[in-house]
Amino acid sequence: MQLSSRLPLPAHALHQIGAGPLTGVPGTAGRQPGTTWPLRRGRRHHSSIVVPARPAMSAHRPTYTFAAVRRHAEGPRAGSQVTGTMAESLAQVRATWEHWGMADPLWAILSDPGKQDNRWELQQFMETGESELSALFARLEQLGLTPPTDRALDFGCGVGRLSQAMATRFETVDGVDISEPMLDLARRSNRFQGQCSYQLNVRPDLEIYPDDSFTFVYSNITLQHIPPRLALGYIAEFVRVVRHDGLAVFQLTSHFRSPILRLRRWLGTSSPAVHRLYRTLWHGGEPPPVSPYPMYWIPSRRVQAHIQASGGDLVMLDHDSSAPPEWVSYRYYVRKSGGPARPAP
């Protein structure tokens, strides 16, 4: 396995969460959208919350408190059932993206500050998918990893930004998402009827697809918004549903880029006395605001071990620029164990 240089992506495809400067929040002067407020560090994986500007919160708008995100990151408590905890986490994820699918679906996926409040033009938005796929397939060709063109899966397809671009490269494309409003827009915008289809999946797995169903599986800026236990489960499913001659490619945040952010994460989640100091230093004494949806991360070494334990081979690891800039993010290229040989260095 080799660590490559950063895979270039169009600037407008960077996933920034939040809109406009953070105003009205003590201690946030000059901070840009996508500022990350850290949460508790777990033994195997971590979670954090990304704080946007503070809009008025409606009674039906899903939000995440620190306690809620901690519960998702820590896993089941003593005496609880794993399945119940995962179902609760998945329900939170679904509620969030159901809301954004109705409120501002395109901005929720590519959160350009100038495009909030439904100011994305659909055609311009879809063109970012083509740009992203063109850069990706140029990289795959460079690595000698171009997959067969039989059938592709777009995991976390949203409104079809990437699956529509995939349909120009694959005979059949399946888009899968947890948000029915997002899928409604994807189906209405589908230019490849009969070739590209969209499925709702509200399960913590991909049971709707048999083993070895796809020659290509792709997911970008999706797993970073899914609690780690669920994200690891989906990664194992990518390995299961990809064919031996196929390829799975996915992006996931690994850790904070700056040691200062790590310090802030520790200060914000330590003892009550230390937490009060943290609030005074960075929040003017006020409680940190809540966020409409969280950011999660899993250290790369943990992801790599999980890929191997799931029956996959990591054939390449790229630095990735899709996550907000305060994160270190990677793109993983995975084949099922026993598949074609790895590309030459």
Number of domains: 2
**CATH fold descriptor of the largest domain:** Rossmann fold
Binned strand content:
15-25%
- Note the total helix count: 10
- Biggest sheet strand line-up: 1-10-11-8-7-4-5-6
Helix-strand pattern: EEEHHHHEHEHEEHEHHEHEE
Please identify the structural class as seen in this structure: alpha/beta
What's the CATH C level of the largest domain? Alpha Beta
Biggest sheet overview: 8 strands, mixed
Helicity level, as a percent range?
Answer: 25-40%
Quick one: overall form?
globular
Could you tell me the radius of gyration in angstroms?
20 Å
- Low-confidence parts: 2-83
The CATH homology group name of the largest domain: Vaccinia Virus protein VP39
Oligomeric organization of the protein chains: single chain
Would you report the number of β strands?
A: 11
Spatial separation of the terminal alpha carbons: 8 Å
